[in-house]
């Protein structure tokens, strides 16, 4: 009985004042009626049948009550009845609905019928089944295996249509809600997900933020042929328009050039970007000529990236690269030295302990991407980018419901100021380096000019 009543509760989009008394009344009436009919109280099918009849009768009485109140107004009268249906849990029940004739000649339905006929519960049932990997082709089989009948209004076509409608609604919600409702966003993870069959793949770039309270929130998505800087730039500009201050955010990426280029284009060259240390480790291993040499440097890498002093960490990483050079692994050494400063970004921001361990890699967003793949694995035909984005948003919203907050809220709250200070330091050093280069160039030009030599 409780599941059947799922639609009429406090979480309904437009809850009625008579909801609680109605549910209590139905439960008591079903129990009494079942005893009168000699039904077993533990027989769900029999109880559901009795509940259906009582719900229909009560709903029709509520419709009549509203019509009587409305027709008391001048020029308004009762019209004939029409067939309709109301939502009851995940099912639809047929009812007879009285119509109201207005003075201007129009005919309307009771407002209660409009609210009782909502389909939110059915949509959620469809979403849960799709999330469990049930396709429209096996929808009826799944219901039969669960001992259920195919509800009215939830056949194969409705199953397909409501799946997509729910996905579209989730995409709209993702892009229109306030991403900072639970706190100011202080870090953003960015990654791309290839979706589609071979030869028809498109990349969906996903942004996930962490707030000052430790909450993680899906921000937005964008789709393109590849994970390009142009695609990421457009996505980030849209994020900035929603009130996220990208100049006070720390970034985490796997090292993709398109992601890095988009961040530089919108947040500036001084934006603090943390490159995933595990990707760096794998790239180094792939570049080795002799994989046996990996064991000689792997421990050094872990020790260096665990340091809270960024200067010492970089010295330890350079020592590791020197070891690789001595072993004849010049390619692996170059791989390690490339953008190595970005592997200690959060250490430069003053992060330590548990938060540093969590922030120096991108396993969080990679786990989310795995969940999106799992939830959409049954979709084999992707018609367009709108479909890809809708289903990724649908999967993200369900993944987000299970995300645990990141601890160390005090350190997270201090990150924006640390980001501002780090950007100022980088900009000062960059300006000083540019000025030194200009002075050196001018001096060289003067020395090379005729008649200025000794």
UniProtKB/TrEMBL annotation:
Acidic residues: compositionally biased ranges:
436-445
- Keyword DNA-binding attributed: yes
DNA-binding among the record's keywords?
A: yes
- Keyword terms of this UniProt record: DNA recombination, DNA-binding, Transposition
GO terms (molecular function) for this protein are: DNA binding; transposase activity
- The UniProt annotation puts the region (Disordered) at 423-454
Q: Which Pfam families match?
A: Transposase_mut
An example Gene Ontology biological process: DNA transposition
Q: Which domain of life is it from?
A: Bacteria
| InterPro entries the record matches | Transposase_mutator
Q: What does this protein do?
A: Required for the transposition of the insertion element.
Similarity field: Belongs to the transposase mutator family.
Question: What's this protein's name?
Answer: Mutator family transposase
Taxonomic source organism: Conexibacter woesei (strain DSM 14684 / CCUG 47730 / CIP 108061 / JCM 11494 / NBRC 100937 / ID131577)
Species lineage? Bacteria, Bacillati, Actinomycetota, Thermoleophilia, Solirubrobacterales
